[in-house]
Amino acid sequence: MLILTCPYCGVDAEETELAPGGEAHLKRFGPGASDEEFRDYLFARENPKGVHFERWRHAHGCGKWFHAARCTMTLEVFGTYPAQTTKPPKAIREAITAKRPGWTWREFE
Amino acid sequence: MKRYSAFAVAREALSYHTGWGRAWRAPEPKPRYDVIIVGAGGHGLATAYYLGKNFGITNVAVLEKGWLGGGNTGRNTTIIRSNYLQDPSAAIYEKSRALYENLSQDLNYNVMFSPRGVIMLAQTEHEVRGYRRTAHANALQGVTTEWISPARVKELVPIINLDGPRYPVLGGLWQARGGTARHDAVAWGYARACSAMGMDIIQQCEVTGVRREGGKVMGVDTTRGAIDCDKLGIVVAGHSGVLADMAGFRLPIESVALQALVSEPIKPCMDVVVMANTVHGYMSQSDKGEMVIGGGADGYNNYTQRGSFHHVEETVRALIETFPMISRLKMLRQWGGIVDMTGDRSPILSKTPVEGVFINCGWGTGGFKAIPGSGWGMAELIAKGHSPLTDAFSLDRFKEGRFIDESVAAGVAH
Q1: For A20, which of B242, B300, B310 is closest by C-beta distance?
Q2: Does position B409 have pLDDT exceeding 80, yes or no?
């Protein structure tokens, strides 16, 4: 069972207490964007086999949205961090590098 | 290939059944093929089979990283139906259901197709409206389905509890020609027929790279060496994103775990397939007497082939309210498979940005029923560049906003 630590209230929440919110750090495209940009914003996903960044909501707890860094191949959790950011903080990226040297994801902002 | 028949059984009995050969060959990869299919599951093997049967293309290899039919083909709950809402879906799923009817004769391999009928229960007012609409749509599409009353549901499924407090049965969508088949046999039957046409099925051969030159595919790198090809078909379900990444394009796909479980065998008690989409559980009884139960999918990306326990609990809790007699059944096994979900819950059968690469994926939680139709359409797509069965399912639809929306009215469960 997946257990994530809510970075706001500090609770170790298991997944029945959480709501998954899909891929993190999507760049929003709106009116005036090209068809390709809008398609990618809505539908194209990294879907990696390995390191992944996701949005989660502590739905049956403090109610806050946050981010989690996770491995989709082993279900290992590298860490969680607040939602108000467009890329994972340095500490999280270093924690991943320590366990998965050479990992890649799409470009961060 | 030795033809299977009652006469063959009698003939082989004379030599104490020591004369049966292998059902398919295990060849070494050749340096080059006209077409390479990645993925020896049902969809990949069916694609290869119809390439040979319908288009005479037999210089084909089917590459499989594990063993034949060991992915979702061997993990699903074997339900076959075609009562979808949208016209393109009805066309490909009904083609598939129709092909299942004669598949055993066509392949000379018993796939144990059992058209026992499928009921989709309506347990909320919204589902009642949704299924009535689907029944009307199916009538226009030429798919035989029928809206039935709770009394008729009870007649077809005596073990059902119609007036549970949370999930009362308000009616159902009944497809009498839907049913089940033996999932492994479908893969084995296609594999045997492909091998007999001279195609190479190469197991334990994982694709590690897609070689391209000037935007065109040249071949693949595998754990058993490089193999050249003119055309490449990627038919790998949950790992589609990984293969697309090798070929240099992205997909509108997310891979999640879907679970199923099976009970201890009991005497025959239910001779139809019952699906309850509100609670996301579905159940049928296998020929061995086990109750085969399908559950819900996890909400997050996962490649581990095991899902979360609480989804199993939700499914079982709801099914026990609908079928009180299963409450004391012991469960024998539980497993998960990685399903490839698209935004509109419809599959992708399409050309790709790389010339010569074709992709068949996105069947999500309901691919088994579609194996013959998907293979039929995909073979035509690879051979001729387009197919009336697959044109609507192209990758372009996500850019053009031409969705085939099956996520609400018909296609949630499988």
Answers
A1: B300
A2: no
> Residue A69's beta-bridge partner residues?
A53, A79
Mean local confidence (pLDDT), B368-380: 97
Q: Rg of chain B's alpha carbons, rounded to an integer?
A: 21
Query: pTM higher than 0.90, yes or no?
Result: yes
Q: Is residue A104 part of a domain?
A: no
The CATH fold assigned to B118-177+255-339 is D-Amino Acid Oxidase; Chain A, domain 2 (3.30.9)
CATH at A44? 3.30.2270.10
User: Which contiguous run of DSSP H or E holds residue B60?
Assistant: strand B60-63
In chain B, where the domains are located: 26-109+183-252+344-400, 118-177+255-339
* Domain membership flag for residue A107: no
B334: β partners? B261
For residue B240, the chain A residue with the least C-alpha distance is A47
The count of domains in chain A is 1
pLDDT over 70, % of chain B:
98
CA gap A25, A61 in Å, rounded: 23
The interface pTM score, or ipTM, of the predicted complex is 0.93
Quick one: pLDDT band at residue A109, thresholds 50, 70, 90?
Answer: low
Q: What is d(CA B258, CA B304) in angstroms, rounded to the nearest whole number?
A: 11
Integer Cα distance of B70 and B81 in angstroms: 23
Q: Regarding beta strands B225-234 and B32-38, do their DSSP bridges make them parallel or antiparallel, or are they unpaired? A: parallel
Choose among B255, B301, B309: nearest Cβ to A1: B309
Q: To the nearest whole angstrom, how far is the Cα of B234 from the nearest Cα of chain A?
A: 17
Tell me which residue range forms the domain holding A7: 3-99
**Which of B241, B300, B398 is closest, CB to CB, to A43?**
B398
A48 contact B CB<8A:
yes
Q: Which residues of B touch A (CB under 8 A)?
A: 239, 241-242, 250-255, 298-304, 308-310, 342-343, 398-400
Superfamily designation of domain B26-109+183-252+344-400: FAD/NAD(P)-binding domain (3.50.50.60)
